[in-house]
Amino acid sequence: MFFRCSLAGILLGVLLFNGCGAARKWEYELMSVETYSSDESLMKIDVRVERVDRGVYGVTGSVNWNYDTSDETMVQASVFKSNSGDESDYKSLPWAIPAQSLYEHMNTYYKDVSMKNFKHCSNVPQFEGKFQPPLPKQIYSGDKCVINCDGLPDIVPPGFYKIIMKCSGPGQPTWNATVISKVTTKMF
Ligand SMILES: *[C@@H]1O[C@H](CO)[C@@H](O)[C@H](O)[C@H]1NC(C)=O
Fold it and tell me: What's 2-185's CATH class?
């Protein structure tokens, strides 16, 4: 479940969920976000972490989505964990989103999680019923997005988590994003 919010975030170029519910026994801090695009004239991702409040960080940024998506646009995500934070220590976790079409993604993870969580702080697409392709070409931006992660487990083992998301399609730019976050046990 952890990755769902993240994938959500990437679509926007935004993420972080520091403001999770009271029952949660863990806290989350965004360490870094790195992005790559094979063609910035078609897909430009520009995100940064911003302090919103004491111990709370949100993400501000924009994604200039300037290409036409198709039925063949695919997204996927994988998650790795490291106890120490050392690069060599990251191990693959079974939490992942296997390659799926972007439109399928829009009708599932996106609609269930991202669309709601980012509504208050961004202009990500909002829709009812089924997503009507294609994804509108425009600049999607978010301002200090701290999302509340409904649907995340109460317990997440502490450590460093690396989430890698990738998107590509035939004749389309390839882009990816790597997010590293640190999970700690909540102090009461
Ligand atoms: C992102 O894509 C580029 C180009 O294909 C690749 O060199 C890079 O390793 C990718 N990043 C990740 C984290 O997979």
Answer: mainly beta
